[in-house]
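Hi team,

As requested, here is the filled-out complex form for the inosinic acid run. I kept the field names the same as last time so the parser does not choke. Let me know if anything looks off before we queue the next batch.

— J.
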Amino acid sequence: MSAGESRRVIVASTNHGKLAEIRSALDFDGWEFVTAVDLGLDSLDVEETGDTFLDNALLKALAYSEAFGLPALADDSGLEVDALDGAPGVRSSRYSGETATDAENNAKLLEELAAVAHDARTARFRSVIVLVEPDGTVTSASGHCEGRIGNERRGEGGFGYDPLFLPAATPGRTMAELALTEKNAISHRGAALRRLRKALELPDCG
Ligand code: IMP
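And here is what came back:
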């Protein structure tokens, strides 16, 4: 990349919550993060057939990089609940059905945990981020965020299971009650993105 030129990276996602967090955390100098829609093109519908977050992140990043001829960045993430043996895990977005909404997934989670006491409601979010270059070079990083599942939804921020997730780092507040920068500072995705920066040997953003 020569001086003054920006490095365009396509983000393999249509999830607005995820995109906002990725864009807020990735202020790499000289890098431009775009979506297919920003380019006036259709997003890809990549089937997430992998058994792990890494497999699925790779599937998405490889598909986007190949289709658009650009470096591609993908996040695959989800919630692991100990009392449910790690479910919903890689099926987090489809927990209550293939076309489930966040509200439906949250309702199912509350139902499944109805008989589980406070101390046994431990859980964590996990995120794996993959960057694939058009020449096939892969860089990946992961992060997790420990917490507990509450008994009721609280807060309007974030997305997905945020209104039910009580991070250990923010006692008394759900992830949906945190500002975007606060969430990025403690979240699985924020941690993965900071590790990706290190792996790419880019300077810290603080
Ligand atoms: P993916 O798009 O296949 O990676 O699915 C991620 C799913 O995991 C989302 O649809 C949410 O249900 C859940 N999830 C992942 N990260 C978060 C988060 O930061 N907050 C709340 N839910 C999340």
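Two things worth flagging: The chain has a mean pLDDT of 93. Helices lie at 16-25, 53-68, 102-112, 180-186, 188-199.

Thanks,
J.
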